[in-house]
Amino acid sequence: MSANAFVPRTYPLVRIPTSVPFTYRDGATTLQLIECIRYNLDGLQSDFNTLVEQVNQSIADDDAAIRQLADNLVSQMAILREELVRLIEQSQSTGLAWSPVYGRQDALQAVLDGMYDNARDHALFWSDYDDMGLKASEYDALGLSAREYDVRATDVDNCVPGDFPGRSRFPYGRGVSEGRTGPA
To answer: Which residues sit opposite 105 in a β-bridge?
Structure first.
């Protein structure tokens, strides 16, 4: 016979209290068994609450990590978009080429500038020009083009500021003496 929860139960006329210390074979009373079950249910509830807290913390940590990944992705995409727009604008005016100097695709003018910059191993710094004390008319009298000033200003290789010996090594292997304004 099955019990239906919707039909009220009929209780016996004589009520039997549930707190009668009935003793089982193992020596435990009903009250002790109820207390044991209550203790175990309290432990189960505590463990369940700890699990819920851990799961909620994991969800919060995962949400924060996903939010950070999304923010990083958005910023990287913005950088890539800016670079793409820059390359498109440059390609419309000059064209694109692969740079053997920097190892990337860039505007043709930037590629040529990079190659030109790396060919200037005989160039001088502005401080070296200042230290020679030549006037503009003396530079003009040498008859050098602007490219020769950059590419063949001295025979000193990879000159760094302060290494240039002066007028005796300018321009490339020749020399400009004090007070002289023509090629040597």
So the answer is: 98
With b meaning 16 or more CB within 10 Å and e meaning fewer, what string describes 59-92? eeeeeeeeeeeeeeeeeeeeeeeeeeeeeeebee
Cα separation, 121 vs 174, whole angstroms: 17
pTM value > 0.70? no
**Cβ contacts of 35 within 8 Å, gap of 6 or more:** none
Residues 20-44: tens digit of each pLDDT:
555 555 556 677 778 888 999 999 9
For residue 25, give both structure tokens: 């074979």
Digit-coded pLDDT (tens) for 51-62: 999 999 999 999
